[in-house]
Amino acid sequence: MAKTTLDLKGLSCPMPIMKLAAAVKKGASGDMFEAISDDAGFEPDIIAWAKETGHPMSGLTKTGKDITVIITKK
Question: Global pTM?
Fold first, then answer.
């Protein structure tokens, strides 16, 4: 299992989700992806995307404007 960190700060919707989805698509099952975004729409978008795609989201934290999520590819 590999872990990839994606700094998506400065990108506006829908780019953070699109870049995360592209990275997850290239990964192997069980790989972990940490994504950090400062886009206000990232939180509801990532929750919906994870639910729709079935990739488990194991964490969501907020630090100031930054939202960090951990996704594991199913």
Answer: 0.92
Mind giving me the DSSP string for 17-74? HHHHHHHHHHS-TT-EEEEEE--TTHHHHHHHHHHHH---EEEEEEETTEEEEEEE--
Q: 1 pLDDT exceeds 90?
A: no
Name the active-site residue from 13, 15, 21, 36. Answer: 13
Active site residue 11: no
List all residues 6 or more positions away from 64 whose beta carbon is below 8 Å from its beta carbon: none
pLDDT tens, position by position, 7-54? 999 999 999 999 999 999 999 999 999 999 999 999 999 999 999 999
